[in-house]
Every structure is written in structure tokens, then in C-alpha cells.
Amino acid sequence: STFLDPSxxxxxxxxxxxxxxxxxxRFVEIVKSLTAENGSRAFGMPGNVDATEYIARxxxxxxxxxVVRQQMSLPVARHHYAYAVLPRxxxxxxxxxxxxxxxxxxxxxxxxxxxxxxxxxxxxxxxxYTKRGYEREFNGHDMAGSILLAEGxxxxxxxxxxxxxxxxxxxxxxxxxxxxxxxxxxxxxxxPRFWVTKxxxxxxxxxxxxxxxxxxxxxxxxxxxxxSGANVLGFLPGSDPVLSSEVVILTASxxxxxxVVDFAxxxxxxxxxxxxxxMAHLIAEQPNSRSVYFAALNGQHSGTMLGGRxxxxxxKRDFPAALRRASELLRKDIRLISxxxxxxxxxxxxxxxxxxxxxxxxxxxxxxxxxxxxxxxLVRARQNYRxxxxxxxxxxxxxxxxxxxxxxDELNQAAAEFIPAxxxxxxxxxxxxxxxxxxxxxxxxxxxxDRDALLPIVAAGEDKIxxxxxxxxxxxxxxxxxKAYNKVARIGPNDHLQTLANERAQLKVVEPILGRYxxxxxxLSLTSNSDDVGVFYKGYFYNQQPDLELKRVYGPLGKRFxxxxxxxxxxxxxxxxxxxxxxxxRSLIWSKVNAISKRRDEYRAVEPLVTSGFDETYHYAAHHxxxxxxxxxxxxxxxxxxVWRMWVLRAKHGTRPPISYxxxxxxxxxxxxxxxxxxxxxxxxxxxx
Length: 689
Hints:
This protein is α/β, with parallel strands linked by helices. It is 50% helix and 15% strand. It contains 18 helices and 15 strands.
């Protein structure tokens, strides 16, 4: 029969075939759908939610299996409102200003932790315009208490106005979208900053020129809020019955970022998710031999790479260990309702807590332990697949395919056994949590009842020195109840049930690939500004020196590519590489392989010499050689001396010899044995390997 071997695929021909199937018009429509139609895609914005639904809908329409949303949350500086009030000229003889025009502003990202929120009532100041931010532009202006109006090209020179006393700044849209406004402090400075479009900026410039001495008002609210978002995941099984047990994980971020919180359409950031969705279309139309797991990551541009971290944590998660940690937290809460200081008043709760803990131990010893055993089988199956299904000199073609078939069966069986065992463990913990919830509620009620009964007694003696034993005991008792209540009231069964729900949600994320071996992990980080290809392997954006890196977490892949770049001379001239034929490139690679094989043969030729043994003779000084050769005689003399002294003590003095004599005899025997067995070298030669 014919066996498929993916290592024999002609990559050049395969790449050309895939490239011919790419639909450029569809790609452009995807970019438009992610930008113009969805508005700002910053994490937490409505456009981000629309993009999440768009990607999930695309996966579903393409027939993907297991389309899920991986929920997560992040503190975000949410823009509620920001506006400026421009007073109109006075309408009465008293000179009072009439209600002015309202100009809507866009808040910039916070100064570290300080948002652009302005206290109720707003701030006011004269509007002072600067084009470049140089000192001479502020000549003739009283900057103290002013509000700066600056062009987007001002860069960091606007901070001069801050030192001169400005209270806030408004930046005008630049003609070049890639020019940074620079309107950010890296510390929590209370200096509100806003952004306006060019047409609004022109209106403000005209107003500032016409009203140099009239203050305007600024109002804004931008609080920190916990916002929820989601990664979107979709699974497409492979077409080959054996190779489908290997999975390729494709990721790309789909959120966007901008210095302007609510104005981040992210056209540049839409290239990567558009490429991911285009690949989804291509692979759905013609499935790959291996399975593919598509992951559209959210929150990558939030400054914390939230989506990627959350997804990878699910991939690396030890689910039974996490379940056991959650059970131990439940145990701590159970013990809180049997506080020893309250045992005298509520002794039944100590017994009830003991029963609950015993029930928890039973679940841990049975259902959770079974899930752990099944998980270890799954881990072992993955290790076996990695070891036995890899390409080697002796295992290719049909042999490799059969090895992968056996490994795939083991993986599928291990995953099929673990998933129900894990869910059974979770279900077994739920009754324990429910019982804890009932005990916890009754315990809270008794604490409150006892506290209410003691309060009048304690309050009656509050203004005088307590002399009665009843008042003193009541006060001490009330203090203990207050401490216990503060602890117990903060916990509850809902927290534990939510933890189990979160664990199940994380398992659902990785469930389609639990029984598959991750063969390749590819993250698409694309740009429209260049057609060059690079390798992002270090895990950070700084170009640190590889030889000086202290952390090698992402190092192996990078070192492999660096090795290729160093050893293959063809990469020294990329222009020449593109002009070379496939046969020429292949011949250069094989020449390098042959050179390595020749070096390996040379090593094997000298291997017997390196590993064989030979005698090496060396020379001692005369006195060293004499001592070594006569070591056995010196040992006998030492033994004889101590034996003679022991005989003298017993025969003439009738006393028992001290322990030091026995130690001396033992030392002599030890030296004698070493000398006789050859461990003390007196032959002046040794065996060297």
C-alpha cells in the first residue's frame, strides 16, 4: 500500500499552489470588515466585540468544529466623555459670557496609572496654540494655568508647556498617521491630555487666535474598569487518518491599539487576522493532512499580551493539579467554620466541618486521583509520540507512518479516558461545595444572632469600667465573633463553584487537541510596510545580544535559525538566493550535509583510540616512593604498637585500655588493607582512558 510521508512534499510546488489560491479581493474585504465596519478595536471597545463576533461567525460558516470563545478580563481606562466648552462673546452690559459651543474630545491613554479624568466642575484656562513646541512660540503668553493646543507633530517638546504651568493639553491630528503625538508621561502625572481631528483642531486654533484672554472649560471622565473580552478559537481536523493526530496551531492578534483610546480602527493591525482568516478559507476548502487549530487572540496590544498569555496558559495547564489546588482552598474555607474560639458556643460545627473535610478527602482519594492517573497516561502518550514518531535515519516512509499510527491510537485513547474522568472529579466536588454552602449560611446566621444578643450587654457597660464577669465575657465573646465574622463573611460557595466553572472552560479550550500532538506553533505578525520575512523568537521586542541573554526560554528555535544563517553561505546574498533554482539550493544544502557526514566519519575513525586504555608511568620522589612501597609494613607497626600497649595496661596495671587505642588499631588495619589491595600506588603507573 501507499503511505503518505509529508517530509517528501516539494515545498516550492506546494507553496506556489497555495499562493495561486489566495483570493486578494476576499483578503481586502476581511480587512475592511475588521476596520471600517467595526470602529475602534481596542480591547473593551464595542468594535472589539464586533470583531470577535465576526471572526467567530466566519469560523462557524467555514464549518469549523469546536468554535469557542476563551473569556478573560483586563483593567482598561474606559473613555466615558470628554469635551471643551468655548464661551461666546458677552451678550449683556455686565460682560457675562453666554453659554458656549461644546467640542467633543478624545481621551489619550493614561499617564501610567493616572487617567485623564477631571474632577467634577472641570478645569478652565486660556487656550495657547503651539505648532512645534519650541520656547519662542510661548513668548508673550502667560502659560500658568493655560490649556495647551498643539499639533500632532510636536513630539515631546510639548512637555515644556507643562513645566511652564499648563494644566492640560489638546493635540491635533497629524497628516502622517505614523507620526506619534508623544502626548504620554511614563509616570502617573495628573495632566489630562486629549486629541481632536484636524477640522476640530482648525476651529480651536481660530478660537484661540480670536480669544487669547478668554478661558475655556474642560470636562472629562475616564475611570479604570474591568472589561471582559475573548479569544476566538476554531478547530479544523486533518484529512489524513493518521497525520490528523498532529496539530498545527495558528495564531494572530485581532485587537488594535492607539494613543487615542476610542479611536483605534487598526488597519495595520488588521493584516495579521485577515491573513489568518484567509488561511482559514484556504484550508477549509482543501483540508490539510494535519489538523489545524486557529486562535484569534485578543488583548495582545493591551500592553500585557493578555490573549497570548491566556491561550498558552491553557495549553500548558496541568488540569488535575489545578483541581487539587482548588480543593485545598475549599478545605481551608471549611476549617474556617470550625474556629476553635467558637467551638464552645457552636460545637456542632466542628463536627460538621470534620465530616465535610472527610467527604472532601474521599473525593480527592478517588475521583481526583483517578483524573490525575488518566492525565499522567496522556502526558506519557505525548512523550511516547514525540520519541517514537519523529523522523530519523532508520525511520522514514512506511515505518514512520506506522509509528505515528500507533502513537495516534495511544493519544486518542488516553484523551478519551481523561476527559470523562476529569468531569467526574468536578461533579464529585460540587456536592461538597453545596454542603459547605449550607453550613456556611447557617453559621453566618448563628454568628449574627449571637452578636445581636451580646451587643446590648456590652453597650450597657461601655461608659464605665466593667466589673461583672458577665460583661467581661460578653465583650471578649463579641470580639471573637467579630473577627470570625469578618473572615467567614468574605468567603462562600459561589467562589468555589466559579473556580470549577473556570477550570471546565479552560479544558474546553484545549479539548479538541488533547488527543493530538502539537507539531508546530505559528504566530502571524504581519505588516503592510515591508515584504521581508523575519523570525520573532526571543519573546520580547528588544534586540538584545544573543550571547548575553540571561533567559533562554525562546532560545532553541532562534539558535537553530541563527545556525542556518551562519552555516549556509547562500543566505549571505539574498538577491542571489531568489535568483537560484530549487536544484541549485538543494545541491548546496546536500553539500553541507555531506560535509557534516564526512566529519562524523572522521570522528568515528578516531573513536577507538579515544576510548581505549593505556598504561602511563610517572615518577615519584625517592621518599614518596619508599613510603608508598612500605605502607603495609608501617600499618603493621602501628597495629603492633597499640596491641602491645593494651597488653601492658591489662597485665601490669589491670586497667581497661581507652577507646583511642581501638581507633589506632582500626586506622592501622585500614592502611594495611589499602596497601595490600593496591589503592596506595607503589608501582608508579596507572591505567588511563
